[in-house]
Design a protein that fits this description.
- The structure holds 2 protein chains of 2 kinds.
- By secondary structure, chain A is α/β, with parallel strands linked by helices.
- Chain A is 44% helix and 9% strand.
- In chain A, helix 11 links the parallel strand 6 (249-252) and strand 7 (269-272).
- In chain A, helix 6 (112-132) crosses helix 8 (167-183) and helix 9 (200-209) packs parallel to helix 10 (230-243).
- The longest helix of chain A has 21 residues, at 112-132.
- Chain A starts with a strand and ends with a helix.
- By secondary structure, chain B is an alpha/beta fold.
- Classes of the chains: A alpha/beta, B alpha/beta.
- The A-B interface holds A 297-298, 310-313, 315-316, 319-320, 339-343, 346, 392-394 and B 30-33, 59, 61-63, 65-66, 68-70, 94, 118-119, 121-124, 127.
């Protein structure tokens, strides 16, 4: 089984999530959003009681350079400041003292037990606190909201590591162990690294070090499914396979269709934003200039291509290849066999969100029930039929991050990695 | 007098030329994109969408392809010094036309007529037409 978690990122996602709650299995709340917009976020969580949720503690922000954490006045950005205030009173001061271009090291951080305790306390109490704020009133009127509930698991402080022999690896592991001492089996640590370091030896060390945790989350830095190489995919697959040998849940903090196919390796869940963050770079965290350059443009998920494309491209593609018109319940209603009506997705971007959640449900059911050989054959088939035309279209992601993806060669890469 | 050739210059020269025969709009919104120049010609019947480039014909053609859904005819306009670099086969594959534009006012020549687009979105093209007429 694959669980699909939606990573809450923008309040304009709320209505689509509420309307399509049956398409997904849970939510991930970034802690800095919860800290900054406690009342509306808490009430929103309460309005979807059927959805379990996790709080991403976002401690990885602490690894940023100071310049990406502060505003023009030199103060911590509001959401980060509020979050760090919850985590430890000393954090803000430590960041303020950083020199230009410098970053914190584990030894710079406050008392580790205090930090872990405060991160735990935030996750256990933030939503309930949100309900008690005076500002919650107007949101309670807006949404039917049941009483607050805690997250299903606690995510300990975690940090990106460049090597399993690094300070940050050791520190993350220690945070996980300290948190487990506090809450027992309800701990779900995050293993955050780049695929390039996942050698056999490194994977073995990770597996050994995390063997006592029943559930883990992996975040493979910048694991862009459209440009990942076969060797990177195989490394990630091996990590997932090894971790899942003794785990109930191995979930990917960011992922799309490629990550879902790793269900065959033992992956049990993915999370991503509604229209974005199928992958994420540790360099593009809240607080970094690139990340805060405004929301990403709305895009349409093309099921057969397993990726998002701009509406202008989709309009052309579905006219050239009418068989690629999506047949999810949203598109059946909106497009209703007339591709001209694609423009209605521009008029109401909410439909883009509902569409992708509907499609994702179909994809997860497909992967759960179809043999991996058939999944691979389908990828190759789609590539064969459509790549020649689609590779002529503009790079749809160029405005976001300069991705080199043009055609759909990534489908062949995926098939090679899963053969 | 020498003129610095830029995409903007090409657009301005082209738009000025096209205004003699119909409404012209620049930076016309098309979903998430902007079409460099759009015009209605032939007594209000045909919508043309034109992507202007100094020399990058590859990018120009790829953008012109997506304009096939919102125009009767889709063109790329290139600085005339480089327009000869555009392979006709690439244009013919998609029925895209080519306009050569110089740095001086009036230096506009249609090198290759575009074909009628077979991919028109009838709702979207009317919106483009309205945006041209409102410009």
């Amino acid at each position: 089984m694959i669980k699909v978690f939606i990573r809450f990122g923008m309040h304009r996602d709320i209505q689509a999530i509420r309307d399509r709650a049956n398409d997904i299995d849970g939510l991930v709340l970034p802690a800095h959003i919860l800290a900054d917009q406690t009342a509306p976020t808490s009430v929103f969580i309460g309005s979807v009681p059927q959805l379990p949720y996790l709080i991403d503690p976002m401690t990885i922000i602490m690894q940023n350079e100071k310049s990406s954490m502060v505003n023009e006045s030199g103060d911590l950005r509001r959401s980060i400041g509020k979050l760090f205030n919850e985590y430890h009173a000393e954090l803000g001061d430590k960041i303020n003292r950083l020199g230009a271009g410098k970053t914190l090291t584990p030894s710079d951080l406050p008392n580790i037990k205090e930090l872990c305790g405060n991160v735990l306390n935030f996750q256990m109490t933030a939503v309930a606190t949100g309900y008690e704020l005076s500002s919650a009133g107007k949101y309670l009127e807006r949404y039917e909201s049941s009483s607050p509930r805690p997250p299903i698991m606690i995510i300990p402080p975690y940090y990106f590591f460049v090597s399993v022999n690094s300070e940050w690896y050791d520190y993350s592991l220690e945070c996980a162990r300290i948190t487990a001492d506090m809450v027992g089996n309800n701990t779900m640590p995050v293993i955050c690294c780049n695929s390039s370091i996942l050698s056999v030896v490194s994977i073995q060390k990770i597996v050994d070090d995390y063997k006592d945790f029943s559930n883990v989350i992996v975040w493979i830095d910048n694991y862009n499914q459209t440009i990942a190489k076969v060797r990177d995919i195989k490394r990630v697959r091996k990590l997932i396979e090894r971790l899942s040998e003794n785990k109930e849940d191995v979930i990917s903090l960011y992922g799309g269709y490629l990550m879902m196919v790793s269900n065959v390796d033992g992956l049990t869940g993915i999370s991503h934003g509604v229209l974005y963050t199928q992958h994420k770079s540790v360099d593009l965290l809240p607080g970094s200039v690139s990340a805060d350059s405004g929301g990403p443009p709305d895009r349409y998920y093309l099921p057969d291509l397993r990726e998002f494309r701009s509406l202008s491209q989709v309009d052309y593609i579905i006219r050239k290849f009418p068989e690629l018109i999506c047949n999810c319940d949203i598109c059946n209603e909106i497009i209703a066999g007339n591709p001209d009506r694609l423009i209605l997705f521009e008029d109401d971007p909410e439909l883009l969100r509902k569409h992708v959640m509907s499609v994702r449900r179909g994809e997860k059911e497909y992967i759960e029930n179809v043999d991996i050989k058939d999944v691979v054959i389908a990828l190759e088939d789609v590539h064969g039929r459509y790549n020649d035309v689609i590779k002529e279209l503009p790079n749809p992601d160029a405005i976001i991050e300069g991705s080199k993806m043009k055609g759909i060669d990534y489908l062949l890469t995926w098939s090679a990695a899963f053969k | 007098m020498k003129y610095k050739v830029s995409e903007k210059r090409i657009v301005d020269v082209l738009a000025s030329y096209l205004r003699k025969s119909g409404n012209v709009a620049q930076e016309v919104r098309h979903y998430e994109r902007r079409i460099d120049v759009a015009t209605v010609v032939e007594k209000g019947d045909e919508v043309w969408a034109i992507e202007a480039k100094v020399s990058n014909w590859v990018k120009g053609i790829s953008q012109a392809i997506t304009n096939l859904t919102v125009s009767n005819k889709s063109y790329i306009a290139m600085y005339n010094k480089y327009s000869h670099r555009v392979p006709m086969s690439a244009l013919e594959k998609y029925g895209i036309g080519l306009i050569a534009v110089g740095a001086r006012w009036g230096e506009v020549e249609i090198i290759k007529e575009a074909s009628e687009s077979p991919y028109i979105n009838r709702i979207a093209i009317e919106r483009i037409r309205n945006r041209i007429q409102d410009a």
